[in-house]
Amino acid sequence: MQNEPTSSLVGEEYEVEVGPVAHGGHCIARTAENQVLFVRHTLPGEKIIAKVTDGDTDS
Predict the structure, then answer these.
(1) Most buried among 3, 11, 14, 38, by the most CB within 10 A?
(2) pLDDT tens-digit map of 7-34
(3) In what order do the strands lie in the sheet with 47-51?
């Protein structure tokens, strides 16, 4: 059985509210589609536009 092709999210931008601090000092943010983003140089509660710079696939 072949897997459906997936697309990369690299380059996509999301307006998100920064959540709690995670491992290594990155913070967690969730998109409207409930996708998890790890963001750096932010503080919990900030509203930001996050641009995806690394990642594998749209999973």
Answers:
(1) 14
(2) 788 999 999 999 999 988 899 999 999 9
(3) 36-39, 27-30, 13-21, 47-51
